[in-house]
Amino acid sequence: MKLIKTEDAVGHVLCHDMTQIIKGVTKDAIFRKGHVVTEADIPVLLSIGKDHLYVWEKEEGMIHENDGAEILCSICKGDHIERGNVKEGKIDLFAECDGLFKVNIELLNKINYLGEMMIATRNGNFPVKRGDKLAGTRIIPLIIEEEKMENAKAIVGDEKILEVKPFIHKKVGIVTTGNEVFYGRIEDQFTPVILNKLKEYSTELVEHVILNDDHEKITEAIVNLINKGADFVICTGGMSVDPDDKTPLAIKNTGAEIITYGAPVLPGAMFLLSYFNGDIPVVGLPGCVMYSKRTIFDLMLPRLMAGERITYEEISKLGHGGLCLSCDICTFPNCGFGKGM
May I ask the CATH class of domain 62-165? Predict the structure, then answer.
């Protein structure tokens, strides 16, 4: 940095905060470190007794924090994300629409490892609302090597670290299974829970079918729902390993690709995920979804509503953070459940 006359400071960058004190009115920084001095600032600076200023002495190959922040923002900001204004090397990012927030964790870690810059995000693979704050970015020093920022750009390449995937309107078919429900021995308490969770998204019910434990009829019902336009089929009941629990067999016999029957999540270990014709999810929900407030279904549903094809590898990693503590007062998703993804 160098010391110059205030009158000569237009276009230069302040190296320190400038505090204005007016008795009984204010005592605060009127200009922050990193502020670029304008012509209109000169009288104000003189009025607070600043005849000379320490300013950033531009060096070849170094760039101002705000310029670095713009680069950092550009490598973060993917589809359906809005940005805030740049200030003191910081830019915040916000959701442009309701959707599923996605974070490329590998790229995020690589950029943060470079040092002198940072990106802090909320957890990915969770739903966000329009206007929600997604991430904060900052260049740490007042000036940063241009080469370091170019290195960050090269690491990310044509990808983006963050994006929001809008939720897709889904036509849903529900198949409720179980002799006890079909023959009226007990009331169906499962379907209302499913419908209540679907209300959070744009969905329409194609049809709700109640069947006994006949796996051939269940298979036929799933296929019929898809033929009627369902692009998401949810099956409830018959998901344990008891001999008369036939739902997994019925789903398999549709020809759907079984991604997993089982997940390292509690509640929800007996969850089944499959895809019919490659892109229509057919899921089997364990009984816990009916009586537990939050389960595997709450982790999977946002991703399925965003049209994602979830892999077995992703599900196998759910164990870290996959234990719901069933708190007396549920704060999900503002808790640890599912945060190990």
Answer: alpha beta
